[in-house]
Specification:
The complex is a heterodimer of chains A (about 350) and B (about 170).
Chain A lengths: L2 E2 L3 E3 L5 E9 L1 H4 L9 E2 L10 H20 L8 E6 L5 H6 L7 E3 L6 H14 L5 E8 L1 H8 L15 E2 L2 E8 L6 E6 L14 H20 L8 E4 L3 H14 L8 E4 H4 L12 E2 L1 H18 L4 E9 L3 H5 L6 E9 L11
Parallel strand pairs in A: 3-4, 5-6, 5-7, 8-13, 11-12, 11-14
Antiparallel strand pairs in A: 1-2, 2-10, 3-9, 7-9, 10-15, 14-15
Helix pairs in contact in A: 6-7
Chain B lengths: L19 H10 L6 H29 L8 H17 L3 H8 L1 H4 L2 H14 L5 H8 L4 H22 L4 H5 L1
Helix pairs in contact in B: 2-3, 3-6, 6-7
Classes of the chains: A alpha/beta (about 350), B mainly alpha (about 170).
């Protein structure tokens, strides 16, 4: 049975992540995970005249690197599933023009990384596709421009604010091959407990992460101890402790696993000026596809659960006094079975 | 807490059942504190430094160009705006502001920064729809409420005739 409970998929034919591509900007390049990214740009402009074009280039490069790693000609891709934070998800759409792959655009704010991976996994697992690429990107300056103030505007950010990751991550899924496998996914529902402060998205998103994590365990029958590591996407220094405390209150034995957050891992939060930590679509994408999958391939980790969190607000909605609806999608990634398939073409 | 060790199967965990009100109080109680006094002190220091620089510029126009203290006002504002625009263009002003808070936002340099940053940011959308339409995106409300406040103060002045000393000393 692939559907378990109401919203979890346990893949009988687990798709294989045969390759990934990760690209980041200068701040991520100074963070503790720098060595795990395929390409680190020394500046935010990336040789482009506008921030929007810079973000698009990040996504283009991540897709190119993933294809190179997979040694896969791009016309073999059945679908591209992805999105980003920009209005009308322009960064991803513009970037995948050159791929010529049939395109499924998705939006889940910063949860897009795992939303796209879950959809891509479903497509491959059910036989609806041979090869699917999932990808997402974000750029600190495009997000500042669209959601907050002009990048050079002097406003003081509160300690609850987060720093949007500049980067892009892409993965290629196949029915067989070498690499970590996607064994399950749980789709989140919208959680909104009335937080209105766009400078405190960690607190807004924490209940969504808790709901999806609990739903995942209950529906799949798995236990926190099943995973070596459970990471949330970008709850950062404010939201992650809130989620931990709520899980503990609800009786989820998170002490049986390691519980961390991509937004806390990608930067040196003490030294780098990132307030509560990282955020953005690329945050969980580059940490999962760069750092965590490398650790799985090294044998360092066997089973992980990535719970990407997204704050689905728009500048319009919060100016009109609306609260911030949030969502979290969980994807379970495990070390592949070495005997599962041969090298892939 | 009673379910510790159960950890398996539906119903083992309590659902997320906090009401919005409860959760907001829960989150608020765990929010990192914002050090108001430190921020006030920093704002006082940086605001004071900016004003002292402005006073120095005024003094310069008075002594070098033999201006009256009133005439030196306009060129002083122009110099301060120029300095703020240069610092904004070099990407420094926002870094000062993260430390200084209101200290760098309240003086005229903050106003210049709000216009300059918007102009730079929206240059990509062209001169008319980008720079022209967005330059006052942040500064516009300062002007609107400044004019409204001036209007109210003007009415008070007209009704009560207070501030007549201004004509004498002016």
């Amino acid at each position: 049975m692939m559907l378990q409970g109401k919203r979890s998929w346990v893949f009988e034919q687990p798709p294989v992540i045969i390759a990934t591509g990760t690209v980041v900007g200068p701040d991520e390049g100074q963070g503790p995970l720098a060595a795990d990214f395929d390409l680190v740009h020394p500046d935010m402009e990336i040789g482009q005249p506008t921030w929007e074009k810079s973000e698009k280039v990040l996504m283009e490069q991540a897709t190119e690197i993933a294809l190179q790693h997979a040694k896969l000609p791009q016309d073999k891709l059945n679908f591209f599933v992805g999105g980003d934070l920009m209005n009308q998800i322009i960064s991803t759409t513009f970037a995948v023009r050159q791929l010529e792959a049939p395109y499924i655009g998705v939006f889940g704010a910063c949860s897009t990384s795992m939303e796209s991976l879950a959809v891509a996994s479903l497509l491959v697992s059910t036989g609806a596709a041979e090869y699917v690429m999932a990808g997402t990107c974000s750029h600190n300056c495009t997000v500042e421009k669209q959601f907050r103030y002009p990048t050079e505007y002097g406003s003081q950010k509160p300690p609850t604010a987060q720093y949007t990751v500049t980067g892009a991550g892409a993965s290629i899924l196949a029915r067989s091959g070498d690499g970590p496998i996607v064994t399950a996914a749980t789709i989140g529902k919208i959680m909104d407990l009335g937080i209105k402060d766009p400078f405190n998205m960690g607190a807004a998103m924490a209940p969504a992460a808790v709901d999806t994590i609990q739903g995942h365990f209950q529906e799949t029958g798995r236990d926190p101890g099943y995973y070596d590591l459970i990471v949330t996407g970008d709850l950062a220094g404010v939201g992650h402790p809130l989620a931990s405390e709520m899980l503990q209150r609800n009786g989820v034995p998170m002490d049986r696993t390691t519980f961390n957050d991509c937004g806390l891992m990608i930067y040196d939060v003490e030294k780098q000026k990132v307030q509560a930590g990282g955020s953005g679509c690329a945050c969980s994408a580059v940490v999962a596809y760069g750092h965590l999958l490398k650790r799985i391939r090294r044998g360092d980790l066997k089973r992980i659960l990535v719970v990407a969190t997204g704050a689905l607000l728009s500048p319009l909605s919060y100016q009109q006094g609306e609260s911030i609806p949030c969502v979290a999608h969980a994807v379970a990634i495990e070390a592949g079975n070495p005997g599962q398939g041969g090298a892939n073409g | 807490m009673a379910v510790k060790g159960a950890g398996r199967g539906p119903g083992a965990y309590k659902p997320v059942s906090m009401s919005s009100k409860e959760y907001q109080a829960f989150a608020k109680a765990r929010e990192p504190s914002r050090s108001i006094w430190t921020n006030c002190l920093k704002a006082f220091l940086v605001g004071g430094i900016i004003c002292t620089i402005g006073q120095g510029v005024t003094q310069f126009f008075i002594t070098v160009f033999n201006m009256s203290s009133r005439d030196a006002g306009n060129p002083t504002v122009a110099v301060m705006i120029l300095l703020a625009v240069i610092l904004t263009s070099m990407g420094v002003y926002d870094k000062i502001a993260q430390w200084a808070g209101a200290g760098s936002a309240v003086p005229v340099t903050g106003f210049a920064n709000s216009m300059c940053s918007a102009a730079i940011e929206h240059r990509a959308e062209g001169l008319v729809l980008g720079v022209g339409a967005n330059m006052f995106k942040l500064a516009g409300s300062v002007i609107v409420f400044g004019v409204v406040a001036a209007f109210v103060v003007g009415i008070v002045y007209w009704l009560f005739g207070i501030g007549a000393w201004h004509d004498v000393t002016g």
